[in-house]
Automatic annotation (TrEMBL):
<protein>
    <submittedName>
        <fullName>Glycosyltransferase, group 2 family protein</fullName>
        <ecNumber>2.4.-.-</ecNumber>
    </submittedName>
</protein>
<keyword id="KW-0328">Glycosyltransferase</keyword>
<dbReference type="InterPro" id="IPR001173">
    <property type="entry name" value="Glyco_trans_2-like"/>
</dbReference>
<keyword id="KW-0472">Membrane</keyword>
<dbReference type="GO" id="GO:0016757">
    <property type="term" value="F:glycosyltransferase activity"/>
</dbReference>
<feature type="domain" description="Glycosyltransferase 2-like">
    <location>
        <begin position="4"/>
        <end position="169"/>
    </location>
</feature>
<keyword id="KW-0808">Transferase</keyword>
<dbReference type="InterPro" id="IPR050834">
    <property type="entry name" value="Glycosyltransf_2"/>
</dbReference>
<keyword id="KW-1133">Transmembrane helix</keyword>
<dbReference type="InterPro" id="IPR029044">
    <property type="entry name" value="Nucleotide-diphossugar_trans"/>
</dbReference>
<keyword id="KW-0812">Transmembrane</keyword>
<feature type="transmembrane region" description="Helical">
    <location>
        <begin position="272"/>
        <end position="290"/>
    </location>
</feature>
<feature type="transmembrane region" description="Helical">
    <location>
        <begin position="240"/>
        <end position="265"/>
    </location>
</feature>
<dbReference type="Pfam" id="PF00535">
    <property type="entry name" value="Glycos_transf_2"/>
</dbReference>
């Protein structure tokens, strides 16, 4: 068997239904599906039963241990030459597996990954969040963009690896967040050949609202410091940009507030206007870039405007998590931690 598709699931039966439906339409048919129910209170066993006679599907239930350990559980029971790791909230275009096969036929790889896009059926908020997570103006293109500030590290929503390499490296670590980047770092450190498959992209739903999105990126900021403590060389300039953005936004906001206060007094209005514009113009210019680029890509001004909120949520959320973790781990010497453990995936 060529592919084993491993999908950890936590309380998402509706999304599993959509993902399995998209697997039925794949042009490449040489694959099995391994569903690992990670201690869900709302299981997807009944959903999986709908596809039992149409897919080579294996369903397992286990106690909750997080997505990384659930992927390892599935990998131990998989029989494919390649393991394809997907999140339960993705949907595959018809040519996904064909694109993977074509890339492997063109040039072998030990590990690989693809990017993600927003489907037309996604909500405007999901499209805005998708834009923020994939745009060069927010992530530097490190999540699979054509323009990028750092090399591509496969991530667990769309990752592939040879089964023997997975076993050699021991799979995912017990990190609660950032475990996919940890795995990708170990893949590179082991000297394995890892690359981006541009045409093997997925539709990725991500978070459904900005509160959940904040939790996700805040923990991502914490995870970056946790990774730095394990692999100091892994911290690059691009990873510092959200922290710089967060501090800069706070300082610019302080200038704006100070300017408004000074405008209230006749003798300091000139200084007030100067501080107000100094703080406001950079924020407005960045917002205009985000809105224009997103509106052009999504053909929607509303999504462009929502993308401003998504971009500021992403960068400041990540930056706050990064700063908090840096203080606690690098200054105070505390152990690895994360802020949102139980309700992040709900």
């Amino acid at each position: 068997m060529k592919y084993s598709i491993i999908i950890p699931v936590f309380n998402r039966p509706e999304e599993v239904d959509e993902l399995l439906e998209s697997l039925l339409g794949q042009e490449e048919k040489d694959f099995e599906v391994v569903i690992v129910e990670d201690g869900s209170q709302i299981p997807c066993k009944e959903v999986c039963g709908k596809y039992a006679d149409r897919l080579d599907l294996h369903y397992y239930q286990k106690e909750n241990s997080g997505p990384g350990q659930s992927r390892n559980y599935g990998a131990e029971r998989a029989g494919g030459d390649y393991l394809l790791i997907l999140d339960s909230d993705v949907v595959l275009p018809r040519g996904y597996l064909r694109a993977v096969s074509e890339e492997l036929d063109r040039k072998p790889a030990d590990a690989f990954g693809g990017s993600d896009r927003a489907h037309d059926s996604f909500t405007d908020t999901q499209k805005a969040i998708s834009y923020s997570m994939t745009s060069f103006f927010t992530t530097g293109g490190i999540r699979g963009g054509k323009k990028k500030l750092d090399k591509f590290y496969p991530r667990s929503f769309n990752m592939g690896i040879r089964r023997d390499v997975y076993q050699e490296l021991g799979g995912f670590s017990k990190m609660r967040f950032g475990e996919d980047i940890d795995f990708s770092i170990r893949i590179f450190k082991a000297g394995k050949h890892c690359r981006l498959f541009p045409e093997a992209w997925v539709w990725h739903k991500r978070r459904t609202d900005f509160r959940k999105f904040w939790r996700q990126v805040y923990n991502s900021g914490i995870a970056r410091i946790n990774l730095y403590r394990k692999y100091p060389e892994s911290l690059k300039l691009v990873h510092l940009l959200p922290m710089v953005f967060t501090v800069g936004t706070a300082l610019l906001g302080l200038l704006v507030l100070t300017g408004i206060l000074l405008l209230c007094f006749p003798g300091t209005r000139a200084e007030g206007w100067c501080l107000l514009l100094t703080g406001l113009i950079p924020l407005l210019l960045y917002s205009a870039v985000i809105c224009t680029d997103s509106a052009r890509q999504n053909h929607s001004l509303k999504i462009g405007l929502l993308s401003i909120r998504a971009a500021f949520t992403q960068l400041t959320g990540y930056g706050c998590g990064f700063i908090s973790a840096w203080w606690k781990r690098c200054v105070c010497g505390k152990d690895e931690f994360s802020a949102y453990n139980k309700n992040f995936y709900k």
